[in-house]
Amino acid sequence: MGPSRRALLAGGAALGLLGAAGCSRVSGSGAEDGGNLLERLRSQGTVRLGIAGEIPFGYIDKNGEFTGEAPEIAKVIFKRLGVPKVQPVPTEFGSLIPGLRSQQFDVVSAGMYINPDRCAQVIFSDPDYRMRDAFIVRKGNPKNLHNYEDIVKQKAKMATGTAYAEIGYAEAVGIKQSDMLILPDQLAGLLAVEQGRADVFAGTTVTVHNVVKQRNSQRAEATEPFQAYVDGKPDIGAGGFAFRPEETKLRDAFNVELHKMKKSGELLRIVRPFGFTKEEMTDLTAKELCS
Description:
Distance between the termini: 15 Å
Oligomer: single chain
Shape: globular
Helix content: 25-40%
Order of helices and strands: HHEEEHEHEHEEEHEHEHEHEEEEHHH
Number of helices: 12
C-alpha cells in the first residue's frame, strides 16, 4: 500500500476484542446506488471503527476508554448521522484496509494518510488534518538536524517506526533502510535517542511533540515541524476516514458533517487536546490527494 506512516500494534487484550467484534458483520448491499450501510447502521445504532492503537490518532487509553483524534471526530459525526454508538475494533495498521474490505468493521478511523495506492482499494472522506514531520534529537540538537538532508550530511544514525512513511522520505535522500533503526513506536524512539542508540527519531510532528512532552524528557527534545520532499516535490501527508468503495452514500453524508465542523471551528476544538493546532487544519480534498 506504499508508505503507511503508522503500523503500531494494539495490545493483546485489544486484539482479543477484534476476534469478538469480527463476528458481527454488516453487508453493504445496494452498491449500485451508493450502498445502504448508513441505513443499516442507523437501524442497529452502532458503527464499528477500525483503529490501529496509536496515540494520538486512535487508541484505547489507560482507563479502557476509546479515544483519539479520529474516534472523537467519529463520535460527533455518527451521532449527527443517527448512529449514537461507536465500537472500536483494534488491529494492526497494515490490516486496516483488508479488515474494512472483509467487513470486520465499517469504517477506518485511524487518521490514515490518503494516497493513490489506498484510493485504488477504498474511498476516503476529505482529510481532517494535514501533517508535517519532526525529529526527536538529543537536548540542544548537537548535530543540528532539521530535515532528512541534514541526517545525510551529518552521517547521523536515524530511527523511525515500523512501516512509517518517514522510511520512504529518508530513502528519497539516500538513506538505506538497512541503516535505519526500525522501532515499534515513538516512545521506543525517544528512549533510543536518550540512550544514544540513535541520533534522531523521525515521525509526525504531533506524535513526536506529544511523546517528548508526556515523558518530560530531560535528555531529548523535539525539533520544529518541516515538510518532507520526495523527488523534489512536497509529499503531502493528510489523513481521513476510509470506507468500502460501494458505500458512497455514507462517505458523502460523513463529508457533509465534516465540512460543517471545519467551517465552524468545531473540528479544531475537538482535536486540539490531542496536540493538533491550526497548522494541521486543511481544505485539501480526497480527490486531490487520490490523484
